[in-house]
Automatic annotation (TrEMBL):
This is Endonuclease. It comes from the Bacteria. It comes from Bifidobacterium colobi.
Length: 253
């Protein structure tokens, strides 16, 4: 069933788009205006329809206008301005052909008992089990959680967690982590923004982005993202994926 937020975004897109366009700009005021024009309530949080579209919503009427090999995504252009733009991908999909690696679960029982089934619980499991180290082959350290800041264009960006890391050759990395629930998807826009934040705040480090998402209660998918050719001016691509199952020590052996 199409939600009110999806109907609002479809109305905004359809009112502006014409064949051949690669960018369809709009503002938060357009969200208010569109809600009135189609007769639905104005969202209490005007950013909610955008977040939903970036995380899990699909609008076939919009997707059908994209050229072959392209997807429509919503990028932030300023503090209250956005644009539908074309990208080569929009959301990550799980690689169903991957083997699952079993890891002894080092999460303290008191944390497991008290934690909720949310992104923070997932991030805690990543930390306690050193999964970032295992996945990347680096020594990583959690630096900051819930980093919220403004990008140079005025758009607000939030990073779920930031790690610093060092490789065997002494090279230092800054690693933003994007965590999602089972019914959400990791989108290109969140990854782009996370990398932009880290390049802005830690310019002397090499950025690598990680996405984490549960496949089940005890299985976690991890994604690695980086820039295609052209460095930070290139497009963000998925460059690695692994699946880990947290098991008792006996089972992992």
């Amino acid at each position: 069933m199409t939600s009110a937020g999806q109907r609002i975004l479809l109305h905004i897109f359809s009112s502006t788009y014409s064949a051949g366009m690669e960018s369809v700009p709009f503002s938060r005021d357009d969200i208010r205006k569109a809600a009135g024009e189609i007769g639905v309530s104005v969202p209490k949080n005007l950013g909610a329809p955008i977040y939903d579209y970036r995380s899990h919503a699909t609008i076939p009427e919009i997707e059908s206008t994209a050229p072959d090999g392209k997807k429509w995504v919503i990028r932030s252009k300023a503090s209250d301005r956005y644009a539908f733009e074309l990208a080569s991908w929009s959301y990550t999909d799980f690689d169903q052909t991957l083997l699952t690696t079993e890891i002894p679960d080092a999460t303290p029982e008191i944390i497991l008992a008290a934690s909720r089934n949310d992104e923070q619980a997932l991030l805690a499991k990543i930390r306690y089990n050193r999964l970032a180290d295992i996945f990347l082959g680096l020594t990583t350290y959690s630096l900051q959680s819930h980093l919220r800041t403004n990008l140079p264009n005025g758009a607000q960006a939030e990073v779920d967690e930031v790690y610093v890391a060092i490789g065997s050759d002494g090279k230092q990395y800054i690693i933003p982590v994007e965590a999602k629930g089972e019914r959400e998807r990791i989108g290109i826009v969140q990854v782009e923004q996370s990398l932009a934040v880290c390049e802005m705040k830690w310019p002397g480090y090499t950025p690598i982005a990680i996405g984490v998402q549960p496949l089940s209660d005890d299985c976690i998918a991890m994604f690695k993202f980086g820039f295609s050719e052209g460095g930070s001016s290139g497009e963000v691509k998925k460059i690695g994926e692994r699946h880990y199952r947290l098991a008792s020590h006996a089972a992992a052996n």
